[in-house]
Amino acid sequence: MFHAEIEMQDKHIEIILHAGAHKTASTHLQNRLLEHEHLFAKTGCSYLGPERIRDEFGTLWRALGRSDSPAEQKRKLAALAAGRSRLLISEENIIGGFKDLMNGPNRAMIYPKALERLTRLTQLVAPHPMHIAMAVREPCSYYVSVYNQLLLSGRFQTWERFSKGLDPTAVKWSDILRPIAEIPGMAAVSIWRYESYHEVFPQVLNTLLGRPRPDIPSRLEKRMHPGLSEQAVRACCTWHAAGYGGRLGAVAREDFPISDANPKFAPWPDELLRESQAAYGQDVEALGRAPKITVLE
Q1: How much is the pTM?
Q2: Which residues of 45-63 are buried (b: 16+ CB within 10 A; e: fewer)?
Q3: C-alpha of 105 from chain center
Q4: Would you tell me how many other CB atoms lie within 10 Å of the CB of residue 125?
Q5: 119 sits in which H/E element
Q6: Which of 274, 276, 267 is nearest to 229 (CA)?
Q7: For the chain, what are the domain ranges?
Q8: Residue 162 and residue 171: Cα distance in Å, rounded?
Q9: CA-closest candidate to residue 139, choices 107, 113, 97
Q10: Of 124, 171, 259, 278, whose CB has the highest number of CB atoms within 10 Å?
């Protein structure tokens, strides 16, 4: 039994980390994975999702035993893989907490601690190779979604305060993804556009689960987190000025849902939207030409 346990700990494990990002349909993908975990486990892939991480361990660092001895770290990683050659981890908070974005967009870089955290994570699981998979999103749309989530969570700010000093045309995903791809021990980085998520869903599953994989439907019928209408945002501002607190956005979304009569909240000028979309397209195209980075199309 002792020799069998040692052999299991020394077994080669390919680690795939779905690292988000926030507001890029990560919850939708995690729900599909959780629902079908029993199917792809049969093909040699174990799954560690946010539900188990937070309920059983608290953080991914604890799940992997960052504070433990090297021998205990090997044992915990082997236990998570459960004898399989592939371990899929989905945890978007590993590259940065969403509350950091909700306190106001970082003016220099999205997820400024991502490189440091992923470097430590790659060292923790060495010598097993790490493969990062994550979605990216056009910055104007991305920050509107972050702002919506701020109001939904009960942390009120005006849009003017939240967006002050932010130039979405200067926000580059390549600022973090290129250095991540160069981390020693990082085998590959795979990304996809949030805007084409449902179209590339099969390729995303191939990246995460390997082949062969079960047929997992994307189920397009319902958005997990619909945004806010312009009227809902105005209502939040009015209620906050009147002294009300709590989850104003959640109440406003129910009272003023997005509809033909209530258009979605869209604060950016059209010209800036076009410039940001063009810059985003160029950024993703450049990432597709970078070493060890694949853009799923």
Answers
A1: 0.91
A2: bbbbbbeebeeebeebbeb
A3: 16
A4: 19
A5: helix 114-125
A6: 267
A7: 2-221+276-295
A8: 15
A9: 107
A10: 171
Over residues 257-270, the pLDDT tens digits come to 999 999 999 999 99
Give the residue from 173, 165, 98, 97 showing the smallest Cα distance to 138.
173
Q: How many CA atoms lie within 13 A of 121 on its CB side?
A: 26
Could you count the other beta carbons within 10 Å of the beta carbon of residue 183?
A: 19
Task: Enter the tokens of residue 261.
Answer: 């009569």
- Short-list 162, 183, 171, 26, CA closest to 110: 171
Cβ atoms of residues 200 and 297 within 8 Å: yes
CA distance 133 to 89: 10
CATH number of the domain located at residue range(s) 2-221+276-295 in this protein: 3.40.50
What does the block give as tokens for 56? 């059983």
Exposed, middle or buried: residue 104 (CB in 10 Å: 0-12, 13-18, 19+)?
A: middle
Is-contact 133 295, C-beta < 8 A? no
Q: Provide Rg for the chain, Cα atoms.
A: 20
Alpha-carbon gap, residue 193 to 199, rounded angstroms: 10
According to the 3-state scheme, what is the secondary structure of 164-223?
Answer: CCCCHHHCCCHHHHHHHHCCCCEEEEEEEEHHHCCCCHHHHHHHHHCCCCCCCCCCCCCC
Q: Which of residues 226 and 8 earns the better pLDDT score?
A: 226
Strand 14-18 vs strand 86-90: parallel, antiparallel, or unpaired?
parallel
User: Model confidence over 26-75: pLDDT tens digits?
Assistant: 999 999 999 999 888 888 999 999 999 999 999 999 999 999 999 999 99
Sign of the CA dihedral 110, 112, 113, 119? positive
Q: How many CA atoms lie within 13 A of 236 on its CB side?
A: 30
